[in-house]
Specification:
It is a single chain. The chain is mostly beta strands and 313 residues long. The chain folds into two domains: 1-29; 32-312, 6 Propeller (Neuraminidase), CATH 2.120.10. The chain has one helix at residues 2-25; strands at 33-36, 47-51, 54-58, 61-62, 66-67, 71-75, 80-83, 95-99, 102-106, 109-110, 113-114, 118-122, 127-130, 142-146, 149-153, 156-157, 161-162, 166-170, 175-178, 190-194, 197-201, 212-216, 221-224, 236-240, 243-247, 255-259, 264-267, 279-283, 286-290, 293-298, 301-304, 308-312. It has a four-stranded antiparallel beta sheet with strand order 1-32-29-28, with no helix packed on it. A four-stranded antiparallel beta sheet has the order 2-3-6-7, with no helix packed on it. Strands 8-9-12-13 form a four-stranded antiparallel beta sheet, with no helix packed on it. It is globular and about 70 Å long.
């Protein structure tokens, strides 16, 4: 009798393990981050931008290479990387954005300090050109687009300190103009556009912040949004389906999702690896987190990442 019960228990355990395996094998990828082919060059303080169904990883810093001009291009269809044409100017902590089929790389840091350089890449011709310099040299600023213009907001300059400056670039006329200054000066900040408004989130001004300030270019006014649940700096941000995804940041792998229509936050699936100074972008209803720094110290150095994580929404 005891043997029979024992056999039944063993069969039950085996059956349960089979069910668990089936569940794990078929777990919806929308509930987790999936590791993809790693970026060839480990780096942090890079920019990551979607352009023409590919993802461009631009510039950044590597402890062996220093500040870099490297461009590496990820193709999600084949899960492979290729090399792009190097930036004319090596930089980290840049603002980069795609607009009308071209890639704009603005400002950032170099071995001489903050820059105001504007370099423009046309993938059709594989040529870099120069744009009109940004009026204020800075790094770790928020960058976004609205109505065919590029907005550079906040950031840090070693002479001016933390910035609340709003400068607006018009690629059509190659000119810059000024917007109303942001209420809170800060660097290591991010920004995105949703429904014709610009959301500037988190950052650092000797305090790690969770504030959201919203800029309306039509009225040239600022308002406050609902604070992020988690204070963050050096994190990634992207939008999908009119929601804002904030990803990682200093010493965290937390992902939080903001719905501007309801003003409510919800928690998303955490990254597999905590990291900051990473790049985040969206392509084909998937979010990609690339590179950055893992806060674990090995041989007196933080781990600089080349990992790529994909989240299907």
């Amino acid at each position: 009798m005891k043997n029979l019960r024992f056999k039944k228990l063993i069969i039950f355990i085996i059956f349960l393990l089979i069910l668990i395996k089936i569940y794990l094998d078929n777990l919806d990828e929308r509930e987790m981050w999936v590791n993809k082919a790693p970026m060839p060059t480990s780096r942090h303080s890079l920019a990551v931008v979607t352009l023409s169904d590919k993802i461009y990883a631009i510039g950044g810093y590597n402890k062996y290479l220093g500040t870099t001009d490297i461009i590496e291009i990820y193709d999600p269809k084949t899960d492979t990387w290729s090399k792009g044409k190097e930036m004319p100017t090596a930089r980290h902590s840049i603002g980069a954005i795609a607009l009308n089929g071209k890639l704009y790389v603005i400002g950032g840091g170099s071995h001489t300090g903050q820059t105001n350089i504007v370099e423009i890449y046309d993938p059709k011709t594989d040529i870099w050109s120069r744009g009109k310099e940004m009026p204020t040299a800075r790094e770790t600023f928020a960058i976004t687009t609205l109505n065919n213009k590029i907005y550079a907001i906040g950031g840090y300059n070693q002479n001016l300190g933390f910035s609340n400056i709003v400068e607006i670039y018009d690629p059509e006329t190659d000119t810059w103009s000024k917007g109303k200054e942001m209420p809170t000066a800060r660097g290591r900040v991010v920004g995105v556009t949703v429904d014709d408004e610009i959301y500037v989130m988190g950052g650092y001004n000797r305090t790690i912040l969770n504030i959201i300030e919203i800029y309306d270019p039509e009225t040239n006014t600022w308002s406050r949004g609902k604070e992020m649940p988690t204070t963050r700096r050096n994190f990634g941000v992207t939008t999908l389906n009119n929601k804002i995804y904030v990803v990682g940041g200093f010493d965290t792998n937390i992902v939080e999702i903001y719905d501007p229509k309801t003003g409510m936050w919800e928690k998303g699936p955490s990254l597999n690896y905590p990291r900051y100074e990473l790049g985040v972008t969206t392509l084909n209803n998937k979010i990609y987190a690339i590179g950055g720094i893992n806060p674990i110290i090995v041989e007196h150095y933080y781990i600089i990442q080349n990992t790529v994580e994909e989240y299907k929404v």
